Amino acid sequence: MMVSLKELKPNESGIITSIGGTRPIRRRLMDMGITPGARIIMRKVAPLGDPIEINIRGYELSIRKAEADQITVER
Amino acid sequence: MSYRFALAGNPNSGKTTLFNSLTGNNAHVGNWPGVTVERKEGKCKKTSENIMIVDLPGIYSLSPYTPEEIVARDFLTLDRPDAIINIVDATNIERNLYLTTQLLELGIPTIIALNMMDELELRGDKIDIINLEKQLGVPVVPITASKNQGITELLEKALSLELGHDLTHKNALNNSKICDTIQTISDLLTANGYSNTLYNAIKLMEKDEKIKDTLKLSPSLNLAVDKAVAQAEHQTGQEIEMMIADLRYKYITESISKFVQKGRKEGDLTFSDKIDKIVTHRILGLPIFFLIMYLVFQVAVGTIGAWVVDPFSAFLTETLPNVATEFLTWAGASEVTQGLVVGGIITGLGNILSFLPQIILLFLCLSVLEDIGYMSRVAFVMDRLFQYFGLSGKAFVPLLMGYGCSVPAIMATRTLEDEKSRRLAITLMPFMSCSARLPVYAVFAGSFFAAHQGLIVFSLYSLGIIVAMLSCLLLNKTVLKGDAAPFVMELPPYRIPTLKATTLHTWEKAKGYVIKVGTVLLTMSVAIWFLQTFNFSLQMVDDSSKSIFGVIGGAISPIFAWNGFGYIKDTGAVHWQIGAALLTGLIAKEAVVSTLGILYINQGTEELTGALSTALQTHFTPLAAFSVMVFVLLYVPCFAAIATAKKELNSWKWTLFTIAYQCGTAWLISMVVYQAGHFLGIGLA
């Protein structure tokens, strides 16, 4: 099922299918390894509800929900 | 021959540690992104060859986002080092090699230093280095920079590279759908006399504006390039920029993954993850953060600090001046000499140096937090709050550095992506109480609120934060409108700080402080003594209020009438000493204390042994003392900070705005605090 990354529950994982958003931020996300086909694991949400922590390509990355909403994953 | 080697790699991959190991320097190493904000150079001490090592800021790709990333890219592409030592974190190899694929396109001789091999082994992972080397087409040397392992071999192999020549390395984008387009553009550039064509061709395809500006293509060539790119986009039906990033990662996963053997399953929890479960926990995260901050202040300025500071301070401000006076009297020194040595030098420096233990403790705490890797967790935990104020959690690290010293903190704002956040952070920086203000608080709080010293200092630090927050809201609505910056941040693994690194780190900062005290403040102390001993006709005066300093201080003091310290408490005379002291505080905040020390104690009305506290108590009410502390907290840190801000903001208009904003805020808040206290009848006796 295709959902936005934001909708994954902690410890759930998905395969990235597409990345939306404006150009500079999209490019930055891809530079950090968020590319189609990569597996992404939702780790947790920060204490105040934003940002989120994800595991991608074996390391931990933090992005905001606004960006996570632009990333579509196959659950 | 002399050569220049550049150290390039991702943030947190250990570049600075390797740099220190190669050059024997003690550069500042920290476990969070953005520690190296400007490139550093040092001579390599491990070989007889003449090699300069250049440590660059960490970068994730050759498409820069932040000013510090531009520093790194410009050095690599415009200055072209003779070789690149690409440092790759072996425990995070997939993402680290993404930069490698781009570095190889520069055509500069390159060697890969595969770092953190010890951590890799601990995780139970293995890398087939021989085959990895074959696949990448450049030498790969396993090292552990923190333990000095593999450094000699790395250097030997680096020296055997074809230094200074342009080379063709393996290209990650070969055999891809856009390979032909790259070739076409590359040929066009070669035909028009451009060098380094592979890199430039790829950057042009990515529509990199900065490269377009540097290359200054002729209109016809520009048109030909655009046509080739448009054609490729049409054929593949994808945006080239995205496709290139995707192709690079595909190349890495397909060709590299077979050489990396993971001891754990993907996504399994590491030791760091387990710590993070608690430290960044939804409910526990914030209380832990506040607890840590509270502990830091208790250690640095609270009970534990006082335990170290008090005896040290007593020696410097009481014992030493007394002994010196006795000695000089015995030696038959003139009154002027005695005044200069005891009143000018010993009192001035003693008052400042007596706070050295506290400053060392504060630096020690911050160093430990940095070296552990807690700083990026702080950014993670605090981001939501910062979003509300129009900043990102990343601004927390520079702002926190502001507690040490505003100068490096202002420089560290280069880790922020957009101009708006940087301006905002630089304007707010002085509200983060720098360590030079600590002596001022310590002396005032110690004299007036001895029983609640820790609490008073804590209230000042908190007030600084509150003023910073309100300023954010105000500036965001007025002069700095715009959207909040995005937030994409790596959370590096926790590392146990080594005793060596932490001591070095603390020592570096403490040394900076002692040097500042020893040079700037010594000159200042002598100058202040001179200005308060002589009048404008250069005659010695008995009453220092008639001295040069007395006149200037007297002229500005009435500004503080509403703040409660413009006039001396009982007599109501113009309080010229505080005006003069605040003025010298612009050169360095510590000078406020030394100036007061010199001005009060040398008036002849006080005994030296009574020291500064007694003098302060006769000049200020407790409320006025608090008001002074508030003013000192908020007004511009020092000339060095102003100069740094000017450099970073690159605009006189903005620099003058920040100065006016900070001084205005300081005056206003301190006035409000005093008037409110006065109305409520607090602390007037």
Question: Could you characterize what this model shows?
Answer:
The complex is a heterodimer of chains A (75) and B (685). Chain A is an alpha+beta fold and 75 residues long. Chain A has 2 helices and 6 strands. A 6-stranded antiparallel beta sheet of chain A has the order 1-6-2-3-4-5. The model of chain A has no long low-confidence stretch (mean pLDDT 92). In chain B, 60% of the residues lie in helices and 6% in strands. In chain B, strands 2-3-1-4-5-7 form a 6-stranded mixed beta sheet, sandwiched between helices. A two-stranded antiparallel ribbon of chain B has the order 6-8. In chain B, helix 13 (285-301) packs across helix 22 (453-477), helix 14 runs antiparallel to helix 16 (356-372) and helix 20 packs across helix 30. Chain B starts with a strand and ends in a 5-residue tail after the last helix. The chains are: A alpha+beta (75), B mainly alpha (685). The A-B interface holds A 13, 19, 23-33, 35-39, 41, 43-51, 53, 55, 57-64, 66-67 and B 60-61, 63, 65, 91-92, 94-95, 98, 241-242, 245-246, 249-250, 262, 266-267, 272-273, 276, 280-283, 285-286, 376, 379-385, 387, 393, 486-491, 493. Strand 5 of chain A pairs antiparallel with strand 9 of chain B. Chain B: This is Ferrous iron transport protein B. Chain B: Its main location: membrane. Chain B: It is found in: Cell membrane. Chain B: The chain crosses the membrane at residues 283-307, 327-348, 355-375, 395-412, 424-449, 455-475, 513-532, 547-568, 580-601, 621-642, 654-674.
